[in-house]
Known about the structure:
Layout: E1 3-4, E2 9-10, E3 20-21, E4 26-27, E5 32-33, E6 38-39, E7 44-45, E8 49-51, E9 56-57, E10 62-63, E11 67-69, E12 74-75, E13 80-81, E14 99-101, E15 106-107, E16 112-113, E17 118-119, E18 124-125, E19 130-131, E20 139-143, E21 146-152, E22 158-160
Parallel strand pairs: 1-3, 2-4, 3-6, 4-7, 5-8, 6-9, 7-10, 8-11, 9-12, 11-14, 12-15, 13-16, 14-17, 15-18, 16-19, 18-20
Antiparallel strand pairs: 20-21, 21-22
Amino acid sequence: MAKIHPLSDVQSENIGENTFVWQYSVILKNAVIGDHCNINCHVFIENDVVIGDNVTVKPGVQIWDGVTLEDNVFIGPNVTFTNDLIPRSKVYPEAFAKTVIRKGASIGANSTIVAGNTIGENALIGAGSVITKNVPANTVWFGNPAKQRGFIDEKGKISYT
């Protein structure tokens, strides 16, 4: 059974076993969240969002329609996802761009992930980065715009290029 703080607004019934939702979070009706996740305070999760198992989402994150977080993903505090490449007030696209964060990837605090990109398995995105293109698996990226700066192995050891 999920543990949902009474000061959160969780409309979805699709939340897995042993997932904890902290206070002041909002999760819309059609969102799907897996088992053993940790959804921290002040997180907003829109309808067309899928979150796998063992995912951590730190405070201050908004996960918009079109975003998928696979298993074992870490999303640092105040990470920003976008889903509309040409945003205008009261003008909505026919479909939102899809963004996928693959299994085991980690995104550092205050990073921005531009819509329509995929971050590969086990990739590491450094704090404050702006991701404007696809990120291959097992790579390390940081900067604005982010560039590949190295590789990361399955034990978390980084080798810089």
